[in-house]
Amino acid sequence: PPAPATTPCPQRCRRSGTLQSNFCSSDFVLTGTVKSVSRGPPQEPGWAVVSVLSLHKSGGLEVPQLAKGATLRLQLPCRLCPALKKGSSYVLMGRLGADGGALLPPEAFVVPYRPQQQQVLGNLSKRPCRGTR
Known about the structure:
single chain, CATH 2.40.50.120, five-stranded mixed β-barrel, 6 strands, 32% strand, secreted, disulfide bond, Netrin_domain, Netrin_module_non-TIMP
């Protein structure tokens, strides 16, 4: 049977672009460690709970005091991608959902976090994005 319309999944999960090319087009950019991933029934979105290491761009994301270690729930409309492993740390670039919550669509730019990316992200967050105020 075809997948339900609520969980659009591509044929193959793949990301495109780089940290630089995705930074401005994403609503929020953060680094975090995955605490849990829940993939509910097929017609329901999944969720990832992430412990935030650092927030580089909030884009209107309502995050309760983003102290180190704050947790954030990210909705996963597609159950397969982006692929997140519990206990692993990632750079997560996502969108704001209609309800203002954090959303990681299947095409979201998500890469395993490496310490050397911190400087790149810091530099990107200082530069204004074209086309935004």
